[in-house]
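**User:** My hope is that you can spare some time for a protein that puzzles me. I have put the entry right below:
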Amino acid sequence: MQIIQIGRDTSNDVIIQDAFVGRRHLELKIDGDKIQVKDLDSKNGTFVNGMRINGEVALHPGDVLKIGKTVLPWQQYVSALPVSKDKKTGRDMKAFWTWVGIIGSIASIGGLVISLMMM
C-alpha cells in the first residue's frame, strides 16, 4: 500500500497553495487498483463529486476531488507512482492509472468547456 499526503504544509507529498486547504488535509491510499481518500479532520472538508466526505471513501475513475478552492488531479498523482503490480491479476497498475489520468483529464477539460459555453 502507498499513501500520498496532501495539504499546505511543505512536509506533504503534494503541496497545495490554497488558504482554504489544511496543513495536513487528506491522504490518498493506493492498494493495487483500489484508491481511497481520507479527510484528516480538515476545517473546510474534502469533497468527492460535490459531496463532503467523512472518513475514508473509495475513488473511481472520473471522480472529482476538491479541497478548498482546488480541484485535485488525483489520477495524475496515482499515475506518477512507481510501477506496482496488482497482487491478484499481476497487471501493471502504473499503466492502468496513467490511462485513468488521461481519461480524467479529458473529462475535466470537457466539463470546463461546457461550463464556459453556458456562461
